[in-house]
TrEMBL record:
GO molecular function term, any single one: potassium ion transmembrane transporter activity
Cellular component GO terms held in the UniProt record: plasma membrane
Transmembrane segments: 138-161, 221-241, 300-323, 343-367, 388-412, 424-444, 449-468, 474-495
Residue ranges occupied by any K+ potassium transporter integral membrane domain in the UniProt entry: 13-517
Protein's membrane topology: Multi-pass membrane protein
Annotated family: Belongs to the HAK/KUP transporter (TC 2.A.72.3) family.
Keywords: Ion transport, Membrane, Potassium, Potassium transport, Transmembrane, Transmembrane helix, Transport
Keyword DNA-binding carried by entry: no
Stated name of the protein: Potassium transporter
Function: Potassium transporter.
Family annotation (InterPro entries): K+_transporter (IPR003855), K_trans_C (IPR053952), K_trans_N (IPR053951)
Protein location: Cell membrane; Membrane
Length: 775
């Protein structure tokens, strides 16, 4: 891997300011603002709260994320699901249906790639215990889904609180303009009624812009955040010097311990607001795939961290000397020059939109990851950048976020209530990351159990204190997070449960190869010209819906390819290792199995050349099988890893878009052994592909040439696609919870806008065969 240069680090650091650090940078808008002035008994408590802010920023984003968690990337990807995928591969705890069966081969391959003989994984007691007990598997999946739900809830709450807080500052600014003793009712109207409608209008505009993608609108974000941070840190430094320079002494942990010694319910309410200073720190890890570890770390340590500390210190210094002044807890009130307040109002609006954008984008990414691992319904995912694959847009989720965000803005119209819900989501997500990270330290990094437990206890205790404080505010606004959690968890749990049960039913009802090879001739089954692609979740045997089809139609195609998509808990599967190709039954039956592997950031199902790639891979499989006598005589289950053919002489060479003079379907044997394939592309043009063996390769057998020729003839005769549609029904007498999950899954399955196999299949060539399973 090429080493990252300092110029590349600088460019990525600049870009990360507009994407990752937008939320952290706008937190000063509502950290002190959400504190009830009546809960502060003395200026010393402001010093103690600043001590908490200082040490929280130091321990969580600086120490935990910058120096520890960022090292636990999954092939450059981050977030709760990346930690879960590491555990799935290295502790074998995956419950996803696509992680069973043939995926054992996938895990074995990944271990061979990522480890050497000197790095053998020791079978410690922790790994054995976690792999043995099924309850541990469910617990880890629940933690991963809990973290995902918190990120999705944050994508709803974060835009609402950011924009509403900024519009509140705008309302106060406009009220100052119209301030007149004879027009007090106008001033009060500005402050009371203006923020919510303006916030809703901004939210509509913000979500409407999402389809342009991060690449287009993100170029404006970094300069806005830089200007914003320099602006607020500038008057923060002024306030420290002008009002209370003693605030700098509060960096001592003595102030924090003094606060904890007199801890009660009132202090818990204060801490629930303080925790918002690290809202957005999880984006440092979740958005790792967009940037690099070095750029994220350098940006935070060298710029964001010191600037935020100056801002919070200046605001605390101002409040400590103006504790009883009206509106002293608002960031806009600490601006030294009233003429700058209007500039602040405009800047805060832009900065809030930037922070919201990062959260919304993180929501899109987590949906993409969950969907790839069968934990979220099928929705259309649009990749908005050709260079950065992690930049995605999900239209259905975008409009859902917008409706929910506007609903909470109108329903609560109070930044304090929204802040309490946001604080609970932040602390929950941080605690989930800590739990999963402690397991990664023990099971993946192979560190001593003491290191794992120490990490869990140290950071977990800090986050548990904040979690307890936010729970004390549950009935004062944090309850809305519970509603969002139940909503998203019901969707994800129902979809995962339905997918799991459907897969288990498919496996239970499949038939052996012998049924097709021995029993079907007795039924008078005939073979018709063409290629039939049979899509199912079964990776061995014959799917039940296909036997149902043959029993009624008594015919199938000359060449049959059983295609199965398997999600692997890795970000990407390299193209050279994407396909597992094997043979089904004897050679003369011309039936093959293709398992298509993809990671949670791959988009293999949206490829126009997908069909051609499979046929190329099968052609290469036939050639390799010629020299592998074990494969010729082995039962089903032996498969060869294939992908994009290479030019190293070991496999077939593919050359596309040949001239029409070469477009004859032939099978040649000799110095330049070649097979030509003439097939229609999705655009209606004829696509020519040549399979050619290097001249130094052994001479091709006649039987192999005939099989390749038969495949070409079948392709020219036409292609049909068979798609099994399994329908679930709850058995009579099932409990209410099971019936609710099944009903939710059936509703989501019927209303998914994205088909099960998104391959641009023409409707005239698609045949769906339905089966009903009662569970």
């Amino acid at each position: 891997m090429q080493k990252e240069t300092w110029m590349q680090t600088f460019i990525l650091s600049f870009q990360s300011l507009g994407i990752i650090y937008g939320r952290l940078s706008t937190a000063p808008l509502y950290v002190f603002e959400t504190i009830d002035a009546g809960d502060i008994s003395s200026p010393e408590e402001i010093h103690e709260l600043f001590s908490f802010i200082f040490w929280t920023l130091t321990l969580i984003p600086l120490l935990k994320y910058s120096f520890i968690v960022l090292k636990a990337d999954d092939d450059g990807e981050g977030g709760p699901f990346s930690l879960y995928s590491l555990l799935c591969r290295h502790a074998k705890v995956g419950l996803i249906p696509s992680n069973s069966g043939s995926s054992k081969m996938l895990y074995h391959e990944e271990d061979e790639i990522s480890s050497s003989p000197s790095q053998e994984k020791t079978e410690n007691k922790a790994r054995k215990a976690i792999e043995k007990y099924k309850s541990c598997h469910y617990l880890l999946l629940f933690l991963a889904l809990l973290g995902a739900c918190m990120i999705l809830s944050d994508a709803v709450l974060r835009p609402a609180i950011s924009v509403l807080s900024a519009t509140s500052s705008l309302g106060r600014s406009l009220a100052e303009i119209s301030k007149d003793k004879s027009k007090d009712h106008v001033t009060n109207a500005f402050k009371k009624y203006l923020p919510a409608p303006v916030a809703c209008a901004i939210l509509v505009g913000l979500f409407t812009l999402q389809h342009h993608g991060t690449k287009r609108i993100g170029c404006f974000f970094a300069p806005i955040i830089i200007t914003w941070l320099l602006f607020i840190s500038g008057f923060g430094l002024y306030n420290i010097i002008h009002y209370d320079a003693q605030i700098l002494r509060a960096v001592s942990p003595v102030y924090m311990l003094r606060f904890l010694r007199k801890f009660n319910l009132r202090h818990g309410k204060l801490l629930s607001s303080t925790v918002l200073c690290i809202a957005g720190s999880e984006a440092m890890f979740a958005d790792l795939g967009h940037f690099s570890k070095k750029s994220i770390k350098v940006t935070f340590i060298c710029f964001v961290y010191p600037v935020l500390l100056l801002t919070y210190a200046g605001q605390a210094a101002f409040i400590s000397k103006n504790l009883h002044a009206d509106g002293a807890f608002h960031l806009s009130e600490s601006i030294p020059n009233r003429d700058l307040e209007h500039i602040f109002a405009v800047l805060s609006l832009f900065a809030s939109a930037v922070g919201s954008q990062a959260t919304i984008t993180a929501g899109f990414s987590i949906i993409h990851q969950c969907q790839a691992l069968d934990c979220f319904p099928r929705v259309k995912v649009v990749h908005t950048s050709n260079k950065i694959f992690g930049q995605v847009y999900v239209a259905d989720a975008n409009w859902l976020f917008m409706v929910l965000s506007i609903a909470f803005t109108i329903g609560l119209h109070d930044t304090s209530k929204l802040a309490r819900a946001t604080g609970l989501s932040v602390t929950t997500c941080l605690l989930v990351t800590t739990c999963l990270m402690s397991l990664v330290i023990a099971l993946y990094w192979e560190k001593h159990l003491f290191a794992s437990v120490s990490f869990l206890l140290f950071f977990g205790s800090v986050e548990a204190i904040y979690l307890t404080s936010t729970l004390t505010s549950f009935f004062r606004g944090a309850w809305c997070l519970f509603i969002l959690f139940v909503f998203f968890m019901t969707i994800m749990a129902a979809w995962h449960y339905g997918t799991l049960k459907k897969y288990e039913s498919d496996v239970e009802n499949k038939v052996s190869i012998e049924w097709l090879t021995d029993y079907s001739p007795r039924l008078g089954v005939s073979r018709v010209p063409g290629i039939g692609f049979v899509y199912s979740d079964v990776d061995t045997g014959i799917p039940a819906f296909f036997t149902h089809f043959i029993s009624n139609i008594a015919a199938f195609h000359q060449v049959v390819v059983f295609v199965t998509f398997k999600a692997s808990p890795v970000p990407y599967v390299h193209e050279s290792r994407r396909y597992l190709i094997g043979r089904v039954g004897p050679t003369e039956y011309k039936m093959y199995r293709c398992i298509v592997r993809y990671g949670y950031h791959d988009n293999v199902r949206d490829t126009d050349d997908f069909e051609d790639d499979i046929i190329r891979s099968i052609g290469e499989f036939i050639m390799r099988e010629e020299y592998d006598h074990e494969a010729l005589n082995s039962p089903e289950g032996r498969m060869i890893v294939l992908g994009t053919p290479s030019n190293d002489g070991d496999g077939l060479i593919t050359v596309a878009d040949m001239s029409s003079s070469e477009c004859s379907s032939t099978v040649g044997v000799g110095e330049s052994q070649r097979v030509l394939l003439d097939a229609p592309s999705s655009s209606g043009n004829r696509k020519r592909v040549r399979f050619m063996l290097p001249p130094e390769s052994p001479e091709m057998r006649v039987s192999v040439s005939q099989e390749l020729g038969a495949m070409i003839d079948a392709r020219e005769s036409g292609t049909a696609y068979f798609l099994g549609q399994s329908h679930l029904m709850a058995r009579q007498g099932s409990n209410l919870f099971k019936r609710l999950l099944v009903m939710t899954y059936v509703f989501l399955d019927k209303n998914c806008r994205e088909p099960p196999v998104a391959l641009n299949i023409p409707n005239a060539a698609l045949l769906e065969v339905g089966t009903v399973y009662k569970i």
